[in-house]
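Comment thread on ticket #2218

A.B. wrote:
> Attaching the input chain for the structure job we discussed in standup.
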Amino acid sequence: MLLYARWPAAISRLTVDHIEETNGAVRIRVGAVPVELPAPVAELALQQVAIRRSNAVLGRTDARWLFPGGQPGCPISALAMGERLRKLGIRLVEARSTALFQLATELPAAVLARTLGIDITAAVKWQRAAAGDWGTYAADVSQRLTRQN
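C.D. wrote:
> Ran it. Output below, let me know if you need it in another format.
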């Protein structure tokens, strides 16, 4: 939620297949393109994959849901996920807006839309609101790739 501006409904539908670990990097797929998670969040994501448990008393299964719910084979409800986040002090609308605003300052609208799985029109609106300077985005990415090789 705080990193990639996902609503509780989208978070609750994540499966273990949305998390991938390759060559020590942990990525999450929330849109068309997997995004690398920063170290502390990556560790938490891998822990959740390993220890996820359903709250269902009967019919426990090894569900693929990252956040299993109270009914066997079902994910946690969006309402329950939102409540968990609120108990942690996360104000849902403000947190999502802040995340989108920050990402819009760093990424072109097309990349933002593809990465987060949001509509391009919404991404353009966020980019305009944030007045992000992404004119040097391609050069920055190119320099990062050159340094890695």
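A.B. wrote:
> Thanks. Noting for the ticket: The chain has two domains: 1-90, 91-149.
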